[in-house]
Write a sequence for this structure.
């Protein structure tokens, strides 16, 4: 099961850091690609630099028509929104089908069409918070925590420590 | 068990939106207060406006000495860092003691002292990602998902929908 993230409403400059956090969260929590609806080569470059050091072939790409991209996606479309059905109620069903997933995360207001295009509108709590938090918790529940144990096969590997930092360079 | 978040290294302007995401995530995932090491009344005001509509007495405050604040905290000090011990290995132990928790999240580089002041250095995965994601997943695991079902007793309440939005105003 491949998981692709679609980040809607990325505004260059204003959203640079938040969109980077969305992309890095997608990567660290087991997604294989993020697609933005606006070109931002800065975000792409920073993720790719990180890939190079820390491993995993996570991809960043862009689409000039998010509608076509969603309609053409072969798999389940999940839209994370505070107005949707509770995560705990639907995540089992979503995970059960091994079809690929497209997970849509917006920034501010999302076009109402998205609610209709999605197979599942899912709320990670019914309170306003953060698309980064929603994405992380959704993926953590979808993959049942296993995504955090994945080997990224990078050039740098962290050895967990009770105190301090230990990083090993793999040659 | 009360959970307080300490956000280190907040830089005014540059971190405004990210720090807001950290604060809103803390609130939505069951923490009762966030403390910043730099005054930013904009972040405080935006969280308080949201409290007013959506409920819950979540507090935003500031400290001019994070060291003293950590040292004076009565409870367990948890520092979220990609270099720490894996979440799945330590979260059971952390949750078992019903003492209050202080959860420290940094932005960029965190002073090495923090690793020593913490009772637990905990990694939410060993990959670089986002303090927002790390905080959300840590709290979700600590509270075992129950935090998302909490009643915030706000003036606005969302009624979960398969498609669309339904918000009820409580008078």
């Amino acid at each position: 099961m491949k998981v692709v993230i679609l980040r809607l409403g990325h505004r260059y400059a204003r959203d640079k850091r938040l969109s980077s956090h969305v992309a890095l969260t997608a990567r660290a929590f087991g997604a294989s690609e993020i697609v933005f609806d606006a070109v931002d080569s800065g975000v792409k470059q920073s993720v790719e630099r990180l890939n190079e050091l820390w491993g995993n072939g996570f991809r960043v790409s862009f689409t000039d028509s998010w509608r076509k991209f969603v309609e053409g996606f072969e798999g389940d479309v999940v839209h994370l929104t505070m107005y949707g059905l509770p995560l705990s109620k639907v995540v089992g069903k979503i995970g059960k089908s091994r079809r690929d997933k497209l997970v849509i995360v917006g920034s501010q207001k999302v076009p109402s069409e998205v609610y209709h295009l999605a197979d599942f509108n899912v709320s990670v709590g019914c309170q306003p918070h953060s698309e980064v938090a929603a994405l992380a918790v959704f993926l953590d529940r979808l993959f049942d925590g296993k995504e955090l144990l994945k080997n990224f096969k990078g050039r740098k590997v962290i050895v967990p420590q009770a105190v301090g930092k230990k990083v090993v360079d793999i040659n």
About this structure: The longest strand of chain B covers residues 76-86. Chain B has six helices and eight strands.
